Amino acid sequence: MVNEPLKSHTYTRLGGLADLLVTPETYEEVQQIVKLAKEEDIPFTLLGNGSNLIVKDGGIRGIVMNLNKLNEIRTEGTKVIAGSGARIIDTSREALKQSLTGLEFACGIPGSVGGALYMNAGAYGGEIKDCLESTLVIDHNGNLLSLQAKDLDLDYRTSNIPDKGYIVLEATFALNEGNYDEIKAVMDDLTFKRESKQPLEYPSCGSVFKRPPGYYAGKLIQDSGLQGTQIGGAQVSLKHAGFIVNIDNATANDYLQLIKHVQKTVKDKFGVTLEREVRIIGEDIE
What's a GO cellular component annotated to this UniProt protein (predicted)? Predict the structure, then answer.
């Protein structure tokens, strides 16, 4: 798709145009696109499913790749293998269907499997590194690599995937046999907590900031009196201060200005530096 509006592909409903948006359907097609971009020196950006992401208003030059068609999920014994474009929520539901325990924490994480590995996503005391066994990736040269979880340097909301330039194709999660009713009860409870506490009624990029050591980002923002603060169409959520929501056709610039304002206010009031969890990509409007 040429000159594709990226606001149609992000959870925040933000972002300018992509010169060319491609949605490969096979691992071989991903390899071919990566090799073509390298050989022809074309700028290349992996979009993911747009959940923990802000795309700037000027859009993205070159090739933008979305892997949402690589979404197969299958089970082999106590292992669940999921394509990069599959939703991590759906992967946790497949584990439930097979009475496998270990992915319950992921039942409310909105991102893709690839994105979950990229940032070692986590919630409610669990994280990807707790259950990831291995992954299939393509490196920046288009080579196919099979890696173990330990090869990814998974830590709190980080991995070496961005630094290495890896593109995740699929992930294998090593789970344990469990009781269907018990697994479902945990997932139902976590889903209730998420829906009652998070502002799911508005577009957002999820949790904006990492948890600072010894603090909670949302609590610091709330105690700084920032809930409801609005720049343009972007607002610090009244429901959960750790979220910035798009309540009125916000631009990416609205979001970025509000993020900076929150960071400065919290730093001035508490001396704590809030580090962004959300990715920011693309170009400003010239």
Answer: cytosol
Residue 61 a catalytic site member: no
**157 is known as an active-site residue:** yes
CB distance 23 to 69 below 8 Å: yes
Q: Does the pTM exceed 0.85?
A: yes
Structure tokens at 271: 């001396």
Among residues 94, 104, 170, 277, which one is catalytic?
277
| Four-way CATH pick for 2-65: 2.60.40.60, 3.30.43.10, 1.20.1740.10, 3.30.360.10 | 3.30.43.10
Does the active-site annotation cover 51? no
Helical spans, DSSP H, in the chain: 27-39, 88-97, 113-118, 161-164, 180-197, 217-223, 252-270
Catalytic residue among 159, 207, 224, 237: 207
User: According to the model, what pLDDT value does residue 50 have?
Assistant: 82
Q: How far apart are CA 237 and CA 186, in angstroms?
A: 27
- Contact yes or no for 206/11 (Cβ under 8 A): yes
pLDDT tens per residue across span 169-223 = 999 999 999 999 999 999 999 999 888 888 989 999 888 999 999 999 999 999 9
Domain 199-281 is in which class? alpha beta
